[in-house]
Design goal:
Blueprint (H helix, E strand, L loop, with lengths): L1 H87 L87 E4 L2 E4 L14 H13 L4 H10 L6 H14 L1 H13 L2 E12 L10 E11 L4 E5 L7 H7 L5 E4 L4 H4 L9 E4 L2 H9 L5 H17 L11 H27 L9 H10 L2 H5 L12 H16 L6 H19 L4 H14 L6 H5 L3 H10 L1
Helix pairs in contact: 2-14, 2-15, 4-14, 8-9, 9-10, 10-11
Length: about 550
């Protein structure tokens, strides 16, 4: 028994050892497999790390290439922009830019508004004012059948079409009948001018092109010819002259109304006039001065012409019954309005003319300082335009009383200190600018005594540009009489522009009405035909 017990015990021991060895082998195999997997993972990590590095290097290379490309594109854009500016210049001569002195306080510029284009998600203009025509466009494909197709919807594509001016020949066939031994005949609409075949719309088109778009009569004649109507140049001049004569009473009514406005902006410009007398160059052409008075309250402008003269008597004769405020530059006749002889008139100055005197000396630090202080007046004046609703003249006056006096005191103090400098030459440009400003200081201060006064005379000068454009595009007025007729039509056309009225619509309507009025018609009737009243009456319809 003991021997068999030990044999059995040895057998169990050997069995346990075999099991342990087998488990040990199994664990070693698992450890070996885990080592292999770890090695594979390490190799995979190394490969991925290498790929990441390669991709990072590629991205950096692409970024560098893209940056270089953008730089080249930007450079090319600058070159193209410079070339386009060079091409658009009137003169091909390249003049090097003058070095601009650095300003103490750079003026802030408003950001440019985005262009209203169809790309880059920019807003397109809708043009709701235009006549619309809808054209149905169906699919045009050999595999498409309209009768079997099911309508799903539509999309719109817009095209703007320009139709050149169209001339129509209306023939009013006036039928004649006999009835009860009496002859009856139809009547054609009355023409603006006696024995004329031209309608008021035709004359209005001439006036609009001549006095608003500053086309010479010769260009208008060519424009009409290209669009199918052969008009002789003398006929065009004759029609414009007849129109001015027809509007003489309307012009006189405009003169009376303008002189009733309590606030006038006055200026003068010139146009070349053909005269019989020859000048020193052997030419029968001279400057003829046209005076302008813009009624700031009523928004009407009157041009007047007295033989082309710029003498002060022309202005004084115009203002002999006037009571109110006149804004102007410092031309000598306007300065005389400040004297006691014209106690019913208050003259106020133009800050732009003052500022211009110092802008002409942009290399002088003191001149730039004066310009900056004048600009402060404009900046303060325009503060209320943002953030304020319902701003009134009374509000503006209160605003001016607050900001203007301190700035004006600084400007005057600076001017007096410059004037007192011992090295200031009496006839220098700076001395002239200082004296120009100080000599009309009272007129400058008076700008800020009312809330409705402008800081400058730009209102009337903007409309004098129509005369300037005509001066460039036309050689001259044919005579003093032609210039007088011209100022009549310029007055009405520019008054229309001040009110945003289509000049063609206005003249086409008023010319037929004026033609029906007898010469002795009361001026009150003509008053209702002036652009401001005409606009009111049209808005009620």
């Amino acid at each position: 028994m003991p021997g068999s017990f030990f044999v059995s015990l040895r057998y169990e021991k050997d069995r346990v050892i075999e099991l342990l060895e087998e488990q040990n082998r199994h664990f070693k195999e698992q450890i070996k497999a885990a080592d292999q997997r770890e090695q594979q993972s390490q190799r995979l990590i190394c490969e991925l790390t290498s790929q990441v590095k390669q991709l990072t290097d590629a991205v950096q290379s692409l970024e560098e290439a893209l940056t270089l490309k953008n730089g080249k594109l930007k450079k090319q854009e600058n070159i193209s922009r410079s070339l386009s500016k060079l091409i658009s210049n009137e003169s091909e001569k390249q003049i090097p830019d003058k070095p601009q002195p650095a300003s103490e306080t750079a003026p802030s510029r408003p950001s440019a508004s985005p262009k209203e284009r169809g790309n880059n998600n920019s807003k397109r203009k809708e043009h709701f004012e235009l006549e619309e025509k809808i054209i149905e466009v169906n699919p045009d494909h050999p595999l498409f059948s309209m009768s079997l197709a099911k309508f799903m919807g539509y999309r719109d594509s817009i095209r703007y079409v320009y139709i050149p001016p169209k001339f129509i020949k209306y023939i009013y066939r006036q039928n004649i009948y006999s009835f009860n031994e009496t002859v009856f005949s139809g009547c054609a609409p009355a023409a603006p001018f006696l024995n004329s075949q031209y309608d008021g719309s035709f004359v209005a088109g001439l006036c609009q092109l001549r006095y608003i778009y500053s086309m010479s009569v010769e260009r208008i004649v060519n424009f009409f010819r290209e669009n199918g109507f052969k008009l002789e140049k003398p006929t065009a001049h004759h029609l414009l002259g007849k129109t001015a004569v027809l509007f003489e009473n309307l012009y006189e009514a405009l003169r009376e109304v303008v002189l009733e406005d309590p606030y006038l902006c006055c200026d003068e410009t010139y146009h070349k006039v053909l005269v019989p007398e020859k000048n020193s160059k052997g030419k029968g052409v001279r400057k003829g001065y046209i005076w302008a008075a813009a009624a700031a309250t009523l928004k009407l402008v009157l041009y007047f012409y007295e033989g082309g003269s710029r003498r002060q008597e022309v202005l004084f004769d115009f203002l002999k019954t006037y009571k109110g405020t006149v804004q102007s530059d410092a031309y000598a006749p306007y300065r005389k309005l400040e004297t006691d002889q014209y106690h019913n008139i208050t003259r106020i100055a133009c800050l732009q003319h003052v500022k211009r005197k110092f802008l002409e000396q942009d290399k002088e630090p003191d001149a730039r300082k004066i310009v900056e202080m004048i600009n402060q007046l404009y900046q303060k004046e325009h503060e209320h335009r943002t953030g304020y609703q319902g701003w009134t003249i009374k509000d503006n006056l209160a605003h001016r009383k607050q900001y203007a006096p301190p700035i004006l005191r600084k400007i005057k103090k600076k001017l007096l200190s410059l004037q007192a400098k011992p090295d200031l030459l009496p006839k220098s440009q700076m001395a002239e600018a200082i004296n120009y400003t100080l000599s009309q200081w009272k007129a400058i201060e008076d700008i800020f005594t009312k809330g409705e006064y402008y800081l400058d005379n730009n209102l009337v000068e903007r409309y004098n540009r129509y005369i300037s454009l005509s001066r460039r595009n036309s050689l001259f007025f044919g005579s003093h009489k032609g210039a007088e007729r011209g100022v009549i039509l310029y007055s009405l056309a520019c008054s229309c522009r001040m009110h945003g009225i289509n000049t063609f619509e206005y003249i086409a309507d008023v010319i037929n009405k004026a033609a029906k009025l007898p010469p002795n018609t009361d001026r009150k009737i003509y008053r209702d035909l002036l652009p401001d009243k005409w606009k009111e009456n049209r808005s009620r319809i």
